[in-house]
Task: structure prediction
Amino acid sequence: MSNKNVFEGNRAAWNQASKYHQKARKNSLLKGFENRDFTTFDSDYDNVVVNKLKHINFDGKIIAQMQCQNGRELLSLMKFGAKEAIGFDISDIAISEAEQLAETAKLSAKFVRTNILEIDDKYNDYFDFIYISEGSLQWFPDLNNYFDVLSRLLKKGGQILISEIHPFVYFFNNGFDFEKQNLDKLTSYFKKEPYNYATGIDYVGGVEYESDECFWFMHKISDIISAILQADIEIREFDEYNLGNAANETVKLLNGFPLSYIIIGRKK
Result:
């Protein structure tokens, strides 16, 4: 399977899913961003992220978010003092919604529909800070390529903050059920081939539907760390948490296991 087919399939699947997200949220984000103090960082796990963000100087900085979806997190990030923000996402529908939200919020944010691996060279050495949020890395078959792009986009000394779902969570994303103990449905930590979310990717409303074919990949923690380091980004912080926003019902039963992690890095 070619990477082109992977990304075009994911583009169609996220356009499909974005319609379900909008239906579930109704107009809550548009109404929310009418208030200058509104933020979407409002869960217990988000509080952990916010505490990390408070130690980063955003004043007058240019920031970006990879896989920004409808831009809600990037617009919330701008409240920390950034002068300019650009969000990148593969979904046409999500980008269109992001532009509406930015207009409502009256914030200096721009949104670009693109495959992250194909971001224009005009953004090379452009950003002071790049944010990657939950559920982003799994859509890329090769993280070395992904972090090479981030490295060229960052200014020297620029920072990244990755707030991601822990690979442990993905063990249960292929139909495993604790009650059934169907161990054959556990996701392999080492398999390189893609998986598919056959019942959709509506993480907002939780609606199951026959999804357009999409492809996600398991990445070991060691793969993630190695890809970051090989892109000339030094890791300043790495923390794991038993908190997260993942909606998987099996994951909600877990206690004492890693559900998320945060990495803060700096381009050399």
About this structure: Residues 3-267 form a domain with the Rossmann fold fold (CATH 3.40.50.150).
